[in-house]
Every structure is written in C-alpha cells, then in structure tokens.
Design a protein that fits this description.
Two copies of one chain form a homodimer. Chain A is of the alpha+beta class and about 260 residues long. Chain A is built from five helices and 14 strands. Strand 9 of chain A pairs antiparallel with strand 3 of chain B, so a sheet runs across the interface. The structure holds a DNA duplex (15 and 15 nucleotides).
Chain lengths: ~260, ~260
DNA sequence: TGCTTGAGCTCGCGA
DNA sequence: TCGCGAGGTCAAGCA
C-alpha cells in the first residue's frame, strides 16, 4: 500500500490523485459522487456512495453497491483531469476521464471522499480457462468421430464472404460439411450456420450439410434448425475439458489443472 | 467506513469476513491470492495481488491490476465460506463463494492480506441512459421522416413467424417497408432483415422494401446488405438523443439531462 | 487499426 | 423460472 487516506480533505485528495493517476498505480476512491457519461450514448447517475477504481492500464470503473457490472466506466483512458470546484459554497472534486476512438468522457463529481488508496499491484499470472468454444474445436480436430463416423476435416476457420466457418469437412459419402460450434446456441447461431451453408452451396459442387455442435440446445431452436434442414450434434463439455487436460498432460508433462487447484 | 484493517493477521481478517459477508455490507479485500473457478467452465489463476470486492447483493469480483473486466467473479452468491488452513507451515485464508443455477464455485486463497474494508454503501440513484436501440425506435415513431420522406408507420413490433419486425410501414408509393433497427449491425442483422422481408412478401401483396436503420455500418456488411437488395439509412445518435430529451422536457417539464449534468 | 466473434458474457424484460 | 436479445458490451485474434 503506497498511500492510504481516510476522510481526506478534497484538496488533499486532489494532490494524491494528481500524483497517482498514472499507469503504474492502482487507485481506489470510496466516496459520495454523481457521474455523467457522454460518448457512444449518454448517461447520468445521481448522488450515491460508490467505489471508483483506476487500474494500472488506466481502465476506470465506478462500482455501485450491487451487480457484477460497473455503473459507469472507461475501458482505457487517454487523459485524466482532476480539479476542485466551489458550487454554492460546497467544494467538489471532479475527476474527468477521457478517451478518443471512440470519443467519450466520464465525469465523476465527488462531494465527499471516505477513502483513497494507492497501490502497485503485481500480478504476472495469466488466467487459464478451459471450457471455451475453441476447446470444442480442438476436441473435434483431435477426434472427428465425436461428430460423426467417417468425418474428414478439410479446413478450420475457413474464410467465406459471409464470415469464418468454424470447421469445414467432408462426410464419408463425400458431401461437404459445415460445422458451427457454439457453447450457447441461439437463433442467430442458426442464421449464421445457414449463412455459411448458403455460401458453400454457391461456391462448391455437390450436397452441403450444416451441423450445429453444442453442449445443449432448446427445443425451439432445434425446431428452427431442423426447419432449415440443418443438423444438431451434442457434445459433452465435461469430456471436452477432460480430453483437453489429457492432451495438456501428455504435451507438457504436467496439467495446468492439477488436483491441488480444485475448488473442493 | 465500518471497519478498516491494514495488514491484518489472517485470523483477524477471517473474523471480520465471517461477520460481514452478508447482504448489507460491501467488503473490499486487497491481497496476494490464487483463484480457482469451476462451473460452466473451469479456470485457474496463479499467485498475484488483486482486489476482491463483495457487493451488497453478494456479487463478488476479483479484479486484477488491469482491464475493465474482473479476472474471476460470481454474479450473485448463495453461500460464502471462510476458513484458514495451514499448508506447509504457511497459513492461508480461503474464501469460497458458491451458487446453484448454474452450479458454480469460486475459491480465493489468500496468502497475504494488505487491506480489508467494510462499508454500507447507500446508493438509491438510478442510472439513466439515453442512446439505446429503443430510443431510435421512439425517434422514428416520433418523426418517420428521418427515415424517408412520406413514410407511414403501420405497426411496431409486428409479429411474424420469423420474429418481431421493429417497424412496419408503407412508403409514399404504397410499398411495404420493413425496418430493422440496430445500434451495432452485423451479418446476422442482414439475414434477419432478409427473413422479415421474405415473410412479408409471402403474406402481403405488392412490393416490399427492407431497410436497416443504424448509426453506423461497415463496408463489408453494407455490401452484404446491398447484394440482397436491402437498403441502409443512417441515423445520427446525437439527434436521437437530442430529440428524446426534447420529448422528455415537454412531457415531464424538466429533462433528466439538464445542462448541469453535462460532461464539459 | 479495423473487422469479426466469443463470453463462466451480464442484465433486463416478458411469458 | 426460463427464453430471448441488447450492450456505452469488452477483449482476443487475425488480417
């Protein structure tokens, strides 16, 4: 902890902010504030007690007492500006965070500040996640039979005018197969698959099959899919994760997901 | 500020957490920790200094020194569990946050804690945002001419077998018009519009035009749209917001977006 | 830098 | 409770 101020005078807080709103520091401010945003949209947030966090990449978050998501934010900031202002005899501290591309401003007006802390957080660890969609891709590439007996993979991430096809292949009767993989398929997923099938039909000779590969699907979306003569193949995410860990083990000698990292 | 502990002993920290991991309190913990998650996917995060925030709705965030998004989180938690553990002579504090539906666990293992604070944040203000997609709808209804001279609106949110049409109308030559409004149009938007047009052509007599209304579009998607004989009309979000504010003013006597809330 | 898509998406609305 | 779509989506990967 580089600095910790409790109930500072706003001028005192301004001094600390002026010195520490740079890339090397993480700054937290607890206080009573109003927030305005203007840019891609426009928002206002009246008086309330919130946490403002300025991270070391200048990303800035205004968190209320509820919810995962911040009330206001700036993903990465080009410039900060701090000033104090007297409004009707009351002193306020104003923190403005601006960026271009897109052009946006967040303005936080503090009436009271309860706490300011400054840190240099050291965190060199990378987050490792398994169970992403790409893990299903890997899993198919590793063992195409999980989709269908005799499937041959021709290309991954095949580019078409309508976008990228996840997996492109042929079945054992030499029909083209377009595979769209999705963890959480929705109506758009079906349209997307349709889009790819249309493109391949335009460009290639012969029959084209479109297959959605997902761990689950709702009845309505399954109907929607089958109405368009598309197919559905279910995969088990547990198996996908397990198979990935097996590969991981054999390749690196040691899994990133050893038992000692379990949540039990 | 209800409580503030600097560099507490882990047992001391545990005592404070046991008392305050309930809905009424916001708890912040700065410390050196590892984090594991298991549920819809699986993740692990090695040692690093992070901020853990437990909000008053039990939402829990683990923020690293960078990025808008937390490294790990739990949107709303069903139960917390705190314990201390001796591993190879080192005492650790373990915070487990679990929820069902979906079944997920986040486990944070602290080796050191720099700071614990407990607050009851009071924030009754509602965030007010303008510039959503629905504001464009309003804007079109208010003044159809922004799309095209002589446009008559027949129906909003018109149901078809392919989904809901944002705006359905007629042009001055009595052709049907299907309008799809989108802040961030993509390829699927085009296919969706196409499907609505197809539905209307099936069901109605006469020519049918499909119009995408958006504040911006990429060249490729514009091509994709024009290949399908669909049209694009650009709207200026500034105008949409301004017109909304004008309506707001006239209806409520006072805008929610007065000049004193500007970001200047 | 821009384009495209996934995300443990989250969140709110509606049936 | 679940399905569905928007988001100031963000962020990663690739051209």
């Amino acid at each position: 902890m580089d600095t910790l101020l409790q109930n500072p005078d706003l001028s005192e807080a301004k001094k600390v902010l002026d010195e520490h709103l740079r890339r090397e520091f993480t700054v937290q401010i607890n206080g009573l504030c109003t927030v305005n945003y203007q840019g891609r949209a426009k928002s206002k947030l009246d008086r309330g007690e919130r946490l403002v966090i300025k991270k070391q990449d200048t990303a800035t978050l205004v968190h209320g007492p509820e919810n995962y998501q911040p009330k206001n934010w700036q993903p990465e900031v080009d410039s900060f500006n701090v000033k104090t202002e007297k409004i009707e005899g009351e002193k306020h501290l104003i923190l403005k965070a601006e960026r271009t591309n897109p052009e946006e401003v967040v303005k936080v007006r503090f009436e009271e500040i309860d706490l300011v802390t400054v840190d240099k957080l050291i965190d060199k660890s990378e987050l490792k996640v398994r169970g992403h969609e790409v893990d299903i891709h890997e899993s198919i590439e590793e063992n195409p039979d999980i989709i269908e007996d005799g499937l041959t993979i021709v290309e991954r991430e095949k580019e078409t005018p309508a976008g990228f096809i996840d997996v492109f292949g042929r079945d054992k009767k030499d029909r083209w197969i377009v595979i769209e993989v999705k963890r959480n398929p929705d109506y758009n997923t079906i349209l997307q698959l349709q889009r790819y099938v249309d493109e391949i039909e335009k460009e290639y000779q012969g029959e084209v099959r479109g297959i959605l590969v997902a761990p689950k699907i709702t009845d309505k979306i399954l109907d929607y899919l089958q109405d368009r003569d598309l197919e559905y193949v279910e995969v088990d995410m547990e198996n996908v994760i397990a198979s990935y860990e097996a590969i991981d083990n054999s390749q690196k000698g040691l899994s990133d997901f050893d038992a000692d990292y379990s949540v039990d």
